[in-house]
Each structure stands twice: as structure tokens, then as C-alpha cells.
């Protein structure tokens, strides 16, 4: 099943290789890394800061390419992913794997040489966790796949922070925790209206295993936990009132979305779940955007 693809016969184009890097996912990764870098105490030369963000960008792309290489069989089944370069045969599997490995080694090596070893170690750990723990181990085996595997997507702000400070602190762990607890409601909202896709691919997402009612309760639980965690940078003194107020408002709206999902009848077409999924993306950009604005305001004060 691994190499079953719908070959189109179309030659690979530059955009196909870019698609291998998962640019939409990459945008979230890079943005949160930038937020961590800007919010961190201390300064980093602008050139080194640009190199650090480049390394995060390339590392995220590397992990995405290896993920697409490994998941090419189930990607060919799911409507959301069957148009990707590997299921359609536009890019050979060996090329995707080679690209991912080369980019991973380049990004970690450059981070170690140009920035510091702490940021490089975190970047290497992120790539390895996403590839081996989430993609190869958890994704096809447990409905807790995105709960545990969500750690991979939560490291980027810590990497940005470590690029400046050379270490890990409670404040950077708080930034990690925001994304870690955001990930389950984000992906479970998607899973509610993509249950059929996951069924066909044999991926044990929570709605397929525990049912829709249990999934909706879990979405609410994680959203409730996310609310105080979103305030943690402000409570720890790592962010100011601009961030604190923004986090409170954004977290409150997330709770409203989760309650709407919980109360929506199963025959309503998952409109609330689709709205929550869209809002969850906005939430992550907005809360880390607020962190950037807050840090910039403090620097100018």
C-alpha cells in the first residue's frame, strides 16, 4: 500500500517541491518562532536572528517533506491530501525523502554553527519528534496521536527564545504549553467534519474511536485548560498588559467556540466545528501576534 499512487504523468514543477515543505503549516511554525525570538529577554544581531528564523523555516519544511514521504499511502486515500505531489506521482518518493533529510541536516548544522547549540538541539529534537514519534509511531496507532504529537509543533517559540538566550526558561515553556494545549481542539474540530477521510485511511482520530460526543467534551476540556495557560506569559511577567488583555479576549472567544461545538446537534452539518477550526488558526496567529506587539511596545517605552 505504501507506494500506491495515482500517477498523473505530469512532470514535477518547483511548486510541487515547495508543497512538499507544507508552506501553510510552516507559516504558523515560523510566526511562533519569530514571536519567541522577539519576546525573549536580551538581543540578537539582526543577521543572526534572520539565520535562526531561516533555520526554523528550513527545518519545518524538512519535517514536512519526510512526513509526506512516509504518509504517501494514506495521503492517496484522503480527499484533503490526495492532490499532494507524492500521491499523484509528480515527485518520486526517494526525492522527497532525500530533500527532507538534506534540509534537516542543513538547518540543524547551520543553527549550531551560526546561533547556538541550545537552539540547534531544540530544532533537531523537534524534527526527530515530528518524524519518528508523531508520524511513524503515534499517528496510525492511537487517538492520542495529536495530543502527544502536538509537542512537535509547540517547540518553535522555544527555539526562537533559545536563539536569543541560549537556554530554556519557564516563560518559554509557557509558550510551548500554549501551542501544546491548542493543538487537540484545533485538530479535533477538523476531525469532526473529516471523520470519513480518517476512517478510510485507518487513522484513529478521536471521533472515529471514541465518538463525536466524547470528542466534543475533550475539545471543551482542552479549551478550558488553554485559557489560563494563554495568560501564563503575562502572569510570569514575560509579557505585559497588551498581551494579557488580548489573551483573555482570545481565550474567551475560543471557549465560546468550544461550547458551540458541544451544543451543536450531530445532524447540523458540523458548522460549529468548521467555524472553530477556522477560529483556532486565527487564535494562534493573534495570540502570538499580541506577544510581538507587546514586546515591541515595551522596547519602545
Automatic annotation (TrEMBL):
InterPro entries: Protohaem_IX_farnesylTrfase, UbiA_prenyltransferase, UbiA_prenylTrfase_CS, UbiA_sf. One of its GO terms (biological process) is heme O biosynthetic process. It is a multi-pass membrane protein. It comes from the Bacteria. Pathway: Porphyrin-containing compound metabolism; heme O biosynthesis; heme O from protoheme: step 1/1. PROSITE patterns: UBIA. Its EC number is 2.5.1.141. The chain crosses the membrane at residues 25-42, 48-70, 91-111, 117-138, 145-164, 170-193, 219-236, 242-262, 282-300. It catalyses: heme b + (2E,6E)-farnesyl diphosphate + H2O = Fe(II)-heme o + diphosphate. Pfam families: UbiA (PF01040). Belongs to the UbiA prenyltransferase family. Protoheme IX farnesyltransferase subfamily. Carbon 2 of the heme B porphyrin ring is defined according to the Fischer nomenclature. This is Protoheme IX farnesyltransferase. It comes from Marivibrio halodurans. The gene is ctaB.
Amino acid at each position: 500500500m505504501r507506494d500506491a499512487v495515482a500517477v498523473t504523468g505530469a512532470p514535477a514543477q518547483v511548486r510541487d517541491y515547495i508543497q512538499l515543505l507544507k508552506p501553510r503549516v510552516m507559516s504558523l511554525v515560523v510566526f511562533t518562532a519569530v514571536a519567541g525570538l522577539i519576546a525573549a529577554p536580551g538581543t540578537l544581531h539582526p543577521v543572526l536572528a534572520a539565520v535562526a528564523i531561516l533555520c526554523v523555516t528550513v527545518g519545518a519544511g524538512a519535517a514536512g517533506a519526510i512526513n509526506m514521504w512516509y504518509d504517501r499511502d494514506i495521503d492517496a486515500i484522503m480527499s484533503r491530501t490526495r492532490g499532494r505531489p507524492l500521491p499523484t506521482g509528480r515527485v518520486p518518493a526517494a526525492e522527497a525523502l532525500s530533500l527532507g533529510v538534506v534540509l534537516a541536516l542543513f538547518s540543524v548544522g547551520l543553527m549550531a554553527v551560526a546561533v547556538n547549540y541550545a537552539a540547534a538541539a531544540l530544532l533537531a529534537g523537534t524534527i526527530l519528534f515530528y518524524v519518528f514519534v508523531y508520524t511513524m509511531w503515534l499517528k496510525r496507532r492511537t487517538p492520542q496521536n495529536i495530543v502527544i504529537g502536538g509537542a512537535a509543533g509547540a517547540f518553535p517559540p522555544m527555539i526562537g527564545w533559545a536563539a536569543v538566550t541560549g537556554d530554556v526558561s519557564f516563560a518559554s515553556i509557557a509558550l510551548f504549553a500554549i501551542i501544546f494545549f491548542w493543538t487537540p481542539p484545533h485538530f479535533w474540530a477538523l476531525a469532526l467534519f473529516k471523520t470519513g477521510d480518517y476512517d478510510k485511511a485507518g487513522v484513529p482520530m478521536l471521533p472515529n474511536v471514541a465518538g463525536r460526543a466524547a470528542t466534543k467534551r475533550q475539545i471543551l476540556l482542552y479549551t478550558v485548560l488553554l485559557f489560563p495557560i494563554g495568560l501564563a506569559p503575562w502572569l510570569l511577567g514575560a509579557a505585559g498588559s497588551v498581551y494579557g488583555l488580548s489573551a483573555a479576549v482570545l481565550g474567551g472567544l475560543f471557549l465560546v467556540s468550544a461550547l458551540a461545538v458541544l451544543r451543536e446537534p450531530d445532524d447540523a452539518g458540523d458548522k460549529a466545528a468548521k467555524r472553530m477550526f477556522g477560529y483556532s488558526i486565527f487564535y494562534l496567529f493573534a495570540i502570538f501576534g499580541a506577544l510581538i506587539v507587546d514586546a515591541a511596545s515595551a522596547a519602545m517605552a
